[in-house]
Amino acid sequence: MTETIIDQSFENMNFSGQKMPAKEYDNCVFKHCDFSNVDMSVITFLECRFENCDFTSVMLKNTTVQNVVCVECKMQGVNFSICNDFMFSIQFKNCNLNYASFYGFVIKNTLFDSCLLKETDFTDADLTGSNFSNSELSGAIFNNTIAEKVDFTLANNFDIDPSQNKLKNAKFSKNNLIGLLRKFNINIS
Fold first, then answer.
1. Cβ distance 12 to 33 under 8 Å?
2. What average pLDDT does the chain have?
């Protein structure tokens, strides 16, 4: 039986390069922890909060993530598409998700608030109802992506081909419509 850790706080811990044992963390808080190059496979995080943590090159194979909040975390190159998809739920605030991958993953109703998402891969992902408020999306890949009801009104520098993605009821502002028209190579002033 998997050990469950409930209502604990972890601060300034360095797990870098380790394999974390399969445990369930329920309602735990992690602050200023280094998870870079850590194998977090088969771990469960329920209603946990991560603040100022480094997840660079973390392995998340079959990791369960439910009602998790990440604030000011470094998550460059993280492959979320290998997480357990059952009830996957996460919110990102001021996180660096450059080069991350959500390839083919269902991440409905996800908040990306003021995040860096340079060259992040959303190919074949289902983003229905998500919000990219004040997030930087230069080079982010949207291909065969379900982006219905997604709020892009405050998103920056995205490039989305409406003919290659599902955008029904997605929201855009007049100021960022160029991101939908770039493929036509037209000048808008």
1. yes
2. 93
Where on the phi/psi map is residue 94: left (φ > 0), alpha (ψ -120 to 50), or beta?
A: left
In this predicted structure, the answer to whether residue 188 has a pLDDT above a threshold of 80 is no
Are 147 and 166 in contact by the 8 Å Cβ rule? The answer is yes
Query: pLDDT tens for residues 141-187?
Result: 999 999 999 999 999 999 999 999 999 999 998 887 666 766 666 56
Binning pLDDT at 50, 70 and 90, where does residue 1 land?
low
pTM for this structure? Answer: 0.92
Task: Write down the residue that tokens 């060259």 correspond to.
Answer: 119
HEC assignment per residue over the chain = CCEEEECCEEECCECCCCECCCEEEECCEEECCECCCCECCCCEEECCEEECCECCCCECCCCEEECEEEECCECCCCEHHHCCCCCCCEEEECCECCCCECCCCECCCCEEECCECCCCECCCCECCCCECCCCECCCCECCCCECCCCECCCCECCCCCCCCCECCCCECCHHHCHHHHHHHCCCCC
Name the one residue in this structure whose structure tokens are 């998402």.
Answer: 117
Given a contact cutoff of 8 angstroms between Cβ atoms, the answer to whether 171 and 163 are in contact is no
pLDDT confidence of residue 181:
60
Tokens found for residue 87: 């009830």
